[in-house]
């Protein structure tokens, strides 16, 4: 007997189960794999549990990763994370049926709370010019992806912008200027993908006071966003308390702004795979407990070999196999 027939006499139960199934289908089990093409270019490969070399996007799909996040830099040295590199990775993700998030840094390299450096080509531009730059760059990259058959589900406008972006004009010392820049990215995203959800993303998802200060500030200044994104890198020895804090913050963000939330970055040292697995299982549970307001969890560069670019918080061992950290996905 089919499930629909078995539940025919219990409409309430059927509704509950189908609602749970819908959330499970829509929840983003994600990974940011922006390094992958550069890794492969350097000769790195990835292997299944039997030691067979396998496409990393296939490996991640088998681990139930259904969404991929890709960063974009404006004029990066070496070309990594430019439009062509992003398209190459997006096409590989799309071939596996994985959903796609594009993460605009609005810089020629890394952007985070400690560095929000304007692209060299924009260095002397006024605020009005920077708004035009953000719109044109965002619209240009997204149109390029769309023209090449890529569907983008989420667009992140800025990366970990706790202290703003495109310094000094977009620093949080002026929420009015920052809100203009956010809206330039928001409007450009909607012009290309009207149904895409625009994310504003901060680090330290455990810090509720900082999130309130930031989002109160940009909201008052008229900024637009669809989703609140958070980074989460808890210490292995104390992950439970950090998970409790980010859970409380997520609940507060939903209540305060009536917007869904998403953990767009998470990670833990690759040698702590047991702790990472427990942490991620708990984080998934806490995020899903928000129902339609908890959209997903993205591991940041799980395919990074230990020590790649000085990074040690991937979920790959030295033999190129994924660790148990990825089991909760």
Reconstruct the topology from this structure:
Blueprint (H helix, E strand, L loop, with lengths): L2 H4 L4 H16 L1 E5 L3 H6 L14 H7 L4 E6 L10 H13 L3 E6 L22 H21 L6 E4 L17 H18 L4 E6 L5 H13 L6 E6 L6 H19 L3 E6 L6 H16 L5 E7 L29
Parallel strand pairs: 1-2, 1-8, 2-3, 3-4, 4-5, 5-6, 6-7, 7-8
Describe the 3D structure.
The structure is a single chain. This protein is an alpha/beta fold. 40% of the residues lie in helices and 14% in strands. It has 10 helices and 8 strands. It has helices at 3-6, 11-26, 36-41, 56-62, 83-95, 127-147, 175-192, 208-220, 239-257, 273-288, and strands spanning 28-32, 67-72, 99-104, 154-157, 197-202, 227-232, 261-266, 294-300. An 8-stranded parallel beta barrel has the order 1-2-3-4-5-6-7-8, surrounded by 4 helices. Strand 7, helix 10 and strand 8 form a beta-alpha-beta unit. Helix 6 runs parallel beside helix 7 (175-192), helix 8 runs parallel beside helix 9 and helix 9 runs parallel beside helix 10. The chain is globular. The two termini are 30 Å apart. Mean pLDDT is 93; it is low at 1-22.
Backbone CA Rg:
20 Å
How far apart the termini lie comes to 30 Å
Counting DSSP H or I runs of 4 or more residues, the number of helices is 10
Helical amount:
40-55%
**Could you list the spans in which at least 5 consecutive residues all have pLDDT below 50?**
1-22
Q: How many beta strands in the DSSP annotation?
A: 8
Strand ordering within the main sheet: 1-2-3-4-5-6-7-8
Q: Give the overall silhouette.
A: globular
Largest sheet: 8 strands, parallel, barrel
Structural class, please? alpha/beta
Question: Helices and strands, in N-to-C order?
Answer: HHEHHEHEHEHEHEHEHE
| Percentage of β-strand residues | 5-15%
Mean pLDDT: 93
């Amino acid at each position: 007997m089919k499930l629909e027939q078995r539940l025919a006499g219990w409409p309430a139960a059927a509704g509950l189960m189908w609602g749970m199934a819908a959330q499970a289908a829509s929840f983003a089990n994600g990974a940011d794999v922006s390094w992958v093409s550069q890794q492969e270019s350097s000769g790195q490969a990835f292997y299944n549990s039997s030691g067979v070399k396998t496409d990393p996007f296939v490996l991640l799909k088998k681990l139930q990763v259904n969404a991929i996040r890709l960063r974009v830099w404006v004029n990066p040295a070496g070309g990594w994370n430019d439009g062509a590199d992003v398209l190459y990775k997006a096409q590989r993700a799309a071939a596996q049926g994985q959903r796609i998030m594009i993460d605009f840094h609005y810089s020629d390299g890394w952007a985070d709370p400690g560095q929000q450096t304007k692209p060299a080509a924009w260095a002397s531009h006024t605020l009005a010019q920077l708004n035009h730059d953000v719109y044109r760059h965002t619209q240009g990259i997204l149109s390029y992806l769309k023209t090449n058959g890529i569907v983008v589900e989420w667009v992140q406008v800025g990366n970990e912008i706790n202290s703003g972006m495109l310094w000094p004009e977009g620093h949080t010392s002026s929420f009015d200027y920052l809100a203009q820049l956010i809206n330039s990215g928001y409007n450009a995203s909607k012009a290309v993908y009207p149904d895409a959800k625009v994310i504003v993303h901060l680090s330290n998802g455990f810090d509720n006071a900082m999130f309130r200060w930031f989002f109160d500030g940009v909201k008052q200044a008229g900024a637009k966003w669809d989703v609140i994104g958070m980074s989460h890198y808890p210490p292995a020895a104390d992950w439970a308390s950090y998970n409790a804090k980010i859970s409380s913050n997520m609940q507060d963000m939903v209540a305060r702004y009536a917007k869904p939330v998403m953990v767009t970055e998470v990670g833990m040292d690759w040698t702590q795979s047991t702790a990472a697995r427990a942490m991620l299982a708990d984080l998934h549970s806490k995020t899903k407990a928000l129902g339609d307001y908890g959209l997903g969890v993205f591991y940041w560069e799980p395919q990074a070999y230990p020590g790649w670019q000085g990074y040690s918080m991937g979920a790959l061992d030295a033999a190129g196999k994924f660790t148990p950290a990825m089991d909760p996905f």
